């Protein structure tokens, strides 16, 4: 039996004005990102991450933070 990811998290991003879709494209290229969208409100982009463990989540979030245009992230780990 194939098991799904053990960790599901959501990352909400604040990005530089005008770079929302550029950041979105970079997120969608990442293997751990199962879904991402530009949103309106206090934050600009939201991404769903599916990984095997917390160390992989940490690597993924650190990669997201290095995307040019990303100013701030908040990570929410699903229960």
**Count the helices. How many?**
2
User: Which regions are unreliable across 5 or more consecutive residues at pLDDT < 50?
Assistant: none
* Strand coverage percent: 35-45%
Radius of gyration: 12 Å
Strand order of the largest sheet: 2-3-1-4
Described by the principal axes of the CA atoms, the overall outline is: elongated
Number of strands: 4
> In CATH terms, what is the fold-level topology?
Alpha-Beta Plaits
Assigned CATH superfamily: Lrp/AsnC effector binding domain/regulation of amino acid metabolism (RAM) domain
CATH first level = Alpha Beta
Q: How many domains comprise the coordinates? A: 1
Note the main sheet: 4 strands, antiparallel
Give the N-terminus to C-terminus distance in angstroms: 23 Å
Kindly state the mean pLDDT as a whole number?
95
Order of helices and strands: EHEEHE
Helix content: 25-40%
């Amino acid at each position: 039996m194939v098991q799904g990811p053990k960790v599901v998290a959501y990352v909400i991003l604040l990005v530089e004005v005008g770079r929302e879709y550029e950041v979105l494209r970079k997120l969608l290229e990442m293997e751990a990102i199962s879904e991402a969208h530009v949103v309106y409100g206090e934050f600009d982009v939201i991404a769903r991450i599916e990984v095997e463990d917390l160390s992989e989540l940490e690597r993924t979030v650190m990669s997201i933070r290095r995307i040019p245009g990303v100013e701030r992230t908040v990570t929410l780990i699903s229960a």
